[in-house]
Every structure is written in C-alpha cells, then in structure tokens.
Write a structure and sequence with these properties.
- With 208 residues, the protein is mostly helical.
- The protein is globular.
- Among the domains are: 77 residues, 5' to 3' exonuclease, C-terminal subdomain (DNA polymerase, domain 1), CATH 1.10.150; 65 residues, DNA polymerase, domain 1, CATH 1.10.150.20.
- The longest helix has 14 residues.
Length: 208
Amino acid sequence: MEWLWFRQRRLQSRAAPVSTGPNQARMEVSAQHPAPPGSVAQEDYTPYTPPAALEQIPSGEAPRAVSYPDNLTEIRGIGDVYEQRLYQAGIFTWHQLAHTDPETLRQVTKALPTSDVNSWIEQAHQLAQERGREGAVYTGPTPDNLTQIPGIDQIFEEHLYQAGIVTFAQLARLSPQALGEIIPAHQVGDNIDFTAWIERAAALSQNS
C-alpha cells in the first residue's frame, strides 16, 4: 500500500502545472512568435547615437604683408620657447632656418643635446618649398608670441603675421573692425571678442 501511495504522488506531481516567471513567459512568447530575420530583440536593443560630424572649416584669404615671419613651431622639435629664441637671433622664416648651419641653430636656441637640429633644417626646406616661401626673408620688428592672448591660436596668429601685425603694440593699435578684415569671417564665429584681444595686447605691450 505504501508503494501505491508513493507512485500516486509522483504521478500527481508530474501533472501539476509549472509556475512560470516573467523571463520564462518571454521565452515562451519568443518561441511562439520568433522575431523577423535581421531584427533585434527589444530587450537587447541599444539605440545607436552617431558621433557629431566634424565641421571642416576651409582656409580663407587674409591681407598679406610683403614680408612676414613664418610659424616656426610647425617644425617638429621647435616649440614656443625655441621659436622666440630663433626670432631674437634674426631667424624668422623657414627659408632662413633652412640656410642656417646646425651648430648655430643649437647655440641660439640653447637646444637640448637630444634635439635633432638637422631634422629642423630638412623640415624647413620642405615647408618653404610646399608653401611657396623659398627665398622669403623678414626684416621687421621681432615678433611677439601672440598666442599668449586668450582667443588667439596659431591659425589666427598666422593671419595676423601675414597681415604685418607681429607685435603686441601693433595689435593694440588696431580697431575691432580692422581685425575683422584680417581674420576670415568664417573662422571667427560668435565668441571672438576683438576688443578683448586689443586690451590684452595693450597690457602685454607695456610689460614687454
């Protein structure tokens, strides 16, 4: 009798419905209604947000002086400090640097022993050739580092140099309207404060 009672309990347990939780229910629904080929299940889908497009601003034309200094920091290995030392030594353009002997470059810049001044010369030759600056010289005042003024980056500095504005004192004498003619309008944007540039240039010119 005990054996019959045990067998009856096993049969009842097999016939009893199995409780299903939410996950089990989703699995059963998915099995009955499979997703179309190529689709993604809702619980596995993560919306894709494409990265913001990078707006490429074309270079504009700005007034150019007959002679102007080049941006020597475009040469790998030359930073702002070395550039200012080269300017003070009368080396203002890529052409001039390319025709300076390595030992002189090392002396005037006080370059570290690891500095590859021969590479500077090679790069200067290439830049002068690519930018149409072969034979270019500059005989004006020693340029100031205009990027010390907040809002002026190397691109804006180059436009100012090419317009003959190379010192803080020269920039301080300009009007905002004159700066607007030098800096291409499509590069200015809405956040450029030319008046602040002029005021800062005036302060720096007094300290230099």
